[in-house]
Amino acid sequence: MKIAVCVKQVPDTEAEIKWDTEKGVLKRDAIDPITNPFDEFAIEEALLTREKYDCEIYAISMGPERAQEVLRNALALGVNGVYHINDPQLSGSDTFGTAYALANAIKKIGDVDIVFMGRQSTDGSTGAVPGEIASILGYTPLTYVAKIREIDFKAKRIVVERAIEGGFEVVEGKLPAVVSVIKGINEPRLPNLMGIRKAAKMEIPKWNCDDLGLEKDKIGLAASATRVTEISVPPPKGQGEILKGDLEEIAETLVSKLLDLKIIK
Ligand SMILES: Cc1cc2nc3c(=O)[nH]c(=O)nc-3n(C[C@H](O)[C@H](O)[C@H](O)COP(=O)(O)OP(=O)(O)OC[C@H]3O[C@@H](n4cnc5c(N)ncnc54)[C@H](O)[C@@H]3O)c2cc1C
Questions:
Q1: What's the whole-model pTM score?
Q2: How far apart are CA 50 and CA 56, in angstroms?
Q3: Beta carbon of 124 within 6 Å of any ligand 1 atom
Q4: 218: closest CA among 85, 89, 25, 127?
Q5: Whose CA is closest to 7, among 37, 51, 47, 30?
Q6: How far is the CA of 51 from the centre of ligand 1 (A)?
Q7: Cα–Cα distance, 64 to 25 (Å, whole number)
Q8: Which of 24, 90, 171, 255 has its Cβ near the most Cβ atoms within 10 Å?
Q9: pLDDT digit string (tens) for 87-133?
Q10: Per-residue pLDDT tens for 194-228?
């Protein structure tokens, strides 16, 4: 029984984001990278699943050379193996190009029952990749998962709780499935010193487009169906106004201002 976990390297959420406005892509080299925070919950869910059922975990990341740092972190946490999809031809791939490469890597690992992912990344933030991978592979898509209730690897069945507006819904699905998890599904553990030391010495296998049998007209910036054409920050908020006077005066002024603005009638 095998589990795959997708982990994306993203710019540190505390850092100032820099964009290449001409190309419409992030200037990733200019920012300290971290593991996508949602993916930490995905790794933890994979580790918790392995503690309950007998299975192996493989982490995959697609990204430039330094994306291997997030895979070292996964190794330090104790996953069985990692794969780094790294090919300059993949640079600039949109969500579909990314999902296509990740799906082919999952196929290459073989016999994967569950793919754990974060519900979205903190940079691209489309939340599209999990559904796209499920669609390419024909796996059951289970997104926004807040709890895994039950997995029956033999009967190829999984029961989860999905977060929906105002509550949760319980969904039963067939395996193999892509499960994207939300924040709070668990409490991600931290790697210990021994794990970090061991991971630092481990070889990280790399896969390029040929290894994954990727068709060149489906990947990279030129093949991307979507392109970021404009990037802007919201205009600064206007200055606020502090109303002065006693409570009755303040209430009267406030009501007349809201009437003027047609917020109340
Ligand atoms: C026009 C365009 C150009 C881009 N150029 C670049 C670029 O030059 N360099 C670059 O690194 N990215 C680039 N990206 C973004 C890159 O392709 C993203 O990885 C991809 O678009 C995923 O989108 P997202 O971050 O919105 O994923 P989401 O759907 O929000 O992510 C959901 C989950 O999918 C998984 N996931 C997503 N991406 C990856 C990944 N790469 N590896 C492993 N798991 C993943 C994670 O588990 C994540 O939590 C570009 C995107 C577009 C649209």
A1: 0.86
A2: 7
A3: yes
A4: 89
A5: 37
A6: 29
A7: 14
A8: 90
A9: 999 998 999 999 999 999 999 999 999 999 999 999 888 999 999 99
A10: 999 999 999 999 999 999 999 999 998 888 888 88
Please indicate whether residue 4, judged by its CB atom, sits closer than 6 Å to ligand 1: no
d(CA 251, CA 179): 51
Q: Probe ligand 1: pick from 45, 86, 95, max atoms within 8 Å of CB? A: 95
String of DSSP letters for 97-149: HHHHHHHHHHHHH--EEEEEEES--SSS----HHHHHHHHHTPEEEEEEEEEE
Q: Which residue has the tokens 């009267």?
A: 252
Rounded to 5 degrees, what angle do the CA atoms 101, 104, 108 make? Answer: 135
Nearest CA among 4, 227, 10 for reference residue 103: 4
Taking residues 50-79, what's their average pLDDT? 96
Atom of ligand 1 nearest to the CA of 5: 47
- Helix (H) / strand (E) element for 217: namely none
